[in-house]
Design brief:
Low-confidence stretches: 1-20, 228-251
Number of helices: 25
Helix content: over 70%
Oligomer: single chain
Radius of gyration: 22 Å
Structural class: mainly alpha
Largest sheet: 2 strands, antiparallel
Number of strands: 2
Strand order of the largest sheet: 1-2
Strand content: under 5%
Distance between the termini: 28 Å
Length: 453
Amino acid sequence: MTKEVESHCKEDSTPFFQEDHIIWTRSERKRWLIILLVGTMALYSSRTSLPLVMPAVTEERMWSKTDSGTILSSFFWGYTLTQVIGGYLSDRMGGEKIILTAAVGWSLLTFWMPQIIRMFKDPHVSVKFIALTRVIHGALQGVHFPSMSSLSSQHLLEKERAPFFSVLTCGSAMGTLITGTLGSQCLEYYGWPSVFHILGLLGVIWTISFVRFSPKAERIRKKLIRKKFQRHLQYCPVLLGKDHMDQLCICKEAVPWFQIIREPAFWSCVICHACHNNCYFILLSWLPTYFHDTFPAAKGWIFNVVPWLFPIPATFLGKWLSEKLITGGYSVTSTRKIVESLCLSVEAIALCLIAGMSSFHNSLMCMTIILAASGLHSNAVVVNPQDLAPKHSGIVFGLMNTFGAIPGFAGVYLAGFILETTKSWAAVFQATAVINVIGGLLFAAFGSGEAIV
């Protein structure tokens, strides 16, 4: 091993063949993709279980729109708290450990939610206690995406990270789709408590499968082989070359906080993500209530399923479009801006249109277009932390998602307050469209796909 390469590994990084930071093989990459995708599905099934049953629970518990908004938004208070710490711990300890530990908690909380909702008869005490439970639920789920971002940065080559992570984000739409299909059937035939029991059980099954089928056993076997042939493996970085070795190392430097937070590219990414999340979280939380209130004769399984069928193909369309633009000569910066602008502008137009709709089918079509456009976001701003800070993507994603979760409790609560005071869904949709436009303009002006640290 040359002195230059040896010094590079000692001072700046951990060699790629060490057990904690090994680059995934092709088979490992496929297995992790399936495991994490299914985990994201289970996570979103758990997250969207309460919004699905909220009309039924509200009727039983006699909650106001403000009470409903308080409970729906409380999830995001906890979700905000653990983004940065989740990314930090994942970068240091390994994302798979953080994901698994948190999954045990949010799965069991989902399973026991009916007992929690019915624990107190006093509505004021009940609302506060449920809100507190939802804060804990959100805190446990808040570590999931930063941990996945950290995992993909630590165990994949640079060119593989964005496509891998964007596919994982499809799990959010898939999980919501499971809630809409399976959950709607349980709600209609067995009552709202069965929704929590079934979806919570899915999370428990996934955590068991995670322990059983994750590539840890294969990793241990490789560690033994590496010890046996350490003399041969130590020359791998020389054979690969320094330029390639840079992609196979994990930086152990301190996080350059000041350098990150002073960059306009970082803040444009953060604010744009928050603006998009404002739209997404409002629809995620209030969509069943909107259709239930506006079109009471409509079948629940239709509006809880159809809109969520399209974010998945739209995510793959965004992936294809991004790759096409980059191979066609566009820079990563231009590609991210084009895809994100397309996402937010389509959402804003459809939001303005749905505000004036009086037909169920037209409203359903507009809602479907909005959620389909949200799939493009996964190939632009969501993967941007890996562009901006590939060696610290877990914690940068955590910072971005911390601010991105603020609309979860602020926007979702304010939507309930607006509905309570104005009785107008149009006011909610129009305000959301304006926020989308602001986010899109900021990212178009200051966004970047180049590394800042």
